Amino acid sequence: MLAAAVGVVVASGAIVGAYGVADTVQSIKPGIHLVTAKGKTPAAPQVDAQSGAVNILLAGTDTRTGQGGQFNNSADLAGSSGAGSNDVTMVLHVSADHTHATVISIPRDLIAPIPDCPGPNGGTVPGADAGMFNTTLSRGGLSCVVLTAEQLTGLSIPDAALISFDGVIAMSNAVGGVAVCIATPIHDPYAGLDLAAGTQTLVGSQALAFVRSRHGIGDGSDLGRISNQQLFLSALLRKIDSAGVLSNPLTLYQLAHAAVSNVQLSDTISQPTSLVSLALTLKSISMSNMVFVQYPVGTDPSDPNRVVPDSSAAPLLVSALRNDTPLVLSGNLGVGAVAAPGSRPAPAAATTTPSPTPPPPASVSPARPSSAPGAATPAPTATAIPLPSSVTGQTAAQQTCTKGN
Questions:
Q1: 174 pLDDT band (50/70/90 cuts)?
Q2: pLDDT tens digit string along 322-346?
Q3: Where is the sequence biased in composition, kind Low complexity (predicted)?
Q4: What DSSP designation does 124 have?
Q5: How far apart (Å, rounded) are the C-alpha atoms in residues 292 and 164?
Q6: 205 CB contacts (<8 Å, ≥6 apart)?
Q7: Cβ-based burial of 59 (10 A; exposed 0-12, middle 13-18, buried ≥19)
Q8: Confidence tier at 117 by pLDDT (50, 70, 90)
Q9: pLDDT of residue 370
Q10: Phi, psi of 24 (to 5 degrees)
């Protein structure tokens, strides 16, 4: 979802002034070349909204290399150096008619097939019938994360971004902090987090500790951390979307600069025109039509500390994504979240009507949607797919609170 925030900010950056825009553009890091399932790189978009569906993967690495500060110690560097693990992975899917978006969080502890991946120094890293998802970044770089996510979601993902700890700190600093609701006190010595109940404005290292916290949230699992991250990103997007941020040239510049300085983009979206195109694609999607979901999983029968794809719910989600169909959540939040006092569930998109009979599940094999400039945009889909209660999540418009354990 950070990719969405980056695009919105860069597109709005015209009001920052010529110097600010030039300085921000110069901060864009060299692009990462992805080896996709189709073995080719799509053309860069024009400076207008993209045509057709858009799929972008965001991976958060836990590497300590080059992070400095609280992570610059021998224990941290020994534990996770180099590329690191993709401890956070999200896939943003924007519908072909640009009316709704879905953000799928893939659990780090998910055991699933991993395909053959390009080696970091050439050649091929053999795949695995069953591997832990968060090993894919260190196994074969960002391309390996994308290829594995394509198998899980049924989407073709031509664009991706990689963010480190410093990126989360910089983004929260740039917007002056993100206000989140804490239902019960949170204490997590592993992440260095102590928060009292109530509304807390998180900034800098405290914001990072919040999105990293696992032991202090919900049931202490990575699934609880996912719902916490969904809550934080929803709050961040609402703040970016608020009049106070969008009308402040200095804040816009700081946010744009923080984003592009701390994120490595794939070479398909590393040009300024690509970011503007992405922003124009996203600008008309309302907060209530941005849906965060956790990829459906169940406990691994061979290891209670791992999860496997839910054999009934996962195909339904894959079918909805591949058919570009709006999603209707059951109303169940993740294990680390509760509804904010007095809040109401966000309504489904006005153009959708839940269907009592979802279409049959599609096979989980990627099929590249048309996202090339000038491609025809399909007519809006009229029928939404209601997801089973095992698929948890929230919309960006929903007010939710984090539940400590």
A1: confident
A2: 999 998 888 789 989 999 987 765 4
A3: 341-354, 364-384
A4: E
A5: 21
A6: 69, 70, 169, 192
A7: buried
A8: very high
A9: 37
A10: -65, -45
Are residues 9 and 133 in contact, defined by beta-carbon separation less than 8 angstroms? no
Q: Hey, what are 9's tokens?
A: 């900010």
CA distances from 71 to 43, 117, 289, 314 (A): 38, 29, 37, 36
Higher pLDDT, 107 or 349: 107
Packing angle between helix 205-212 and helix 165-174, nearest 10 degrees? 120
Cα separation, 219 vs 325, whole angstroms: 32
- Token digits for 22? 């030039």
The arithmetic mean of pLDDT across residues 214-223, rounded, is: 89
Smallest CA-to-CA distance from 193 within 334, 362, 70 is with 70
Phi, psi (degrees; rounded to nearest 5) at 312: -105, -40
The answer, yes or no, to whether residue 251 has pLDDT greater than 60, is yes
DSSP line for 204-272? THHHHHHHH--TTBTTSSHHHHHHHHHHHHHHHHHHHHSHHHHT-HHHHHHHHHHHHHHEEEBTTS-SH
Residue 254's pLDDT is 72
Rounded to the nearest 10°, the torsion over CA 73, 79, 80, 81 is: 60
In contact, 328 and 383? CB cutoff 8 Å: no
Number of H helices, E strands in the chain: 11, 22
Domain 2-367+380-402 has CATH 3.40.630.190: yes
Give kind and range of the element (H or E) at residue 119: none
Contact criterion met (CB below 8 Å) for 101 and 292: no
1 within 8 A of 241, measured Cβ to Cβ: no
Domain range summary for the chain, segments of one domain joined by +? 2-367+380-402
* Rounded Cα–Cα distance for residues 215 and 197 (Å): 17
Q: Reply yes or no on whether the pLDDT at 366 is more than 90.
A: no
The C-alpha angle with vertex 82 and arms to 236 and 190, in degrees rounded to 5, equals 55
Percent of the chain as helix, strand, coil, to the nearest 5: 35, 25, 40
